[in-house]
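If your schedule permits, I should be very grateful for your opinion on a structural question. The matter concerns a single protein, recorded as an amino acid sequence and a row of backbone structure tokens. Could you please explain, in whatever detail you think fit, how the structure tokens follow from the sequence? I set the record out below, with my sincere thanks for your time.

——
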Amino acid sequence: MISLILYSTILISFFLILIRILIRIRNGSRGKIGHLMSVLGSGGHTHEMITLLDSFVDSRSHSERIKFLSFVISEDDRMSSTKLQNFVKNWQSNSITKYAVFEIKRSRKVQQSYISSIWTTIIALYQALGIVLETKPEILLCNGPGVCLPLIIICKIFSPSTIIVFVESFCRTRTLSLTGKIVYHLSLADHFLVQWPKLKEKYHRSKFMGLLV
């Protein structure tokens, strides 16, 4: 049974890698920044992301190159949706006039069984695939919530021209979050940023740029 699962995993992985190579050949080189997609997690993750985006968009050198912002939130995360609306007006007063909000299912809710989370993860991956293929983001910006994993995986496989930027949460001072560990050890991000020097010492492939939020 275990050998069958292992064989199936290897076969699927090989198939996905092959698809990724073919798409990379078809798409060619990466283009200019036009569409920035960010993932809003619940609670502190959303506050950090909005703070990060606020400073990013306020920079003239960045805002003039970004023409479209999109946000992905969990379908049951009303708080993040409310916080986002409070900041949109400020961004629209800048050179960025277009934005869109997409909802995605959580791969696993708190206290949800791992067996049932298999189905919700499949749904989340399917939704992420539709969002990525429809919008074709130049940059995917994430900061730690588990809801970003399906989008990272889909971009890595089906949209290799997308630059994936993962910013580990401000509250992670010595160890990475679970999502951060997955993204780091599987090399899923093009740029993996940490906000504390201790993390840079421990995870050598990360980039330390000081406090970002």
Remarks:
- The longest strand covers residues 68-74.
- The helical segments are 2-27, 44-58, 60-63, 78-92, 114-135, 149-158, 178-185, 197-202.
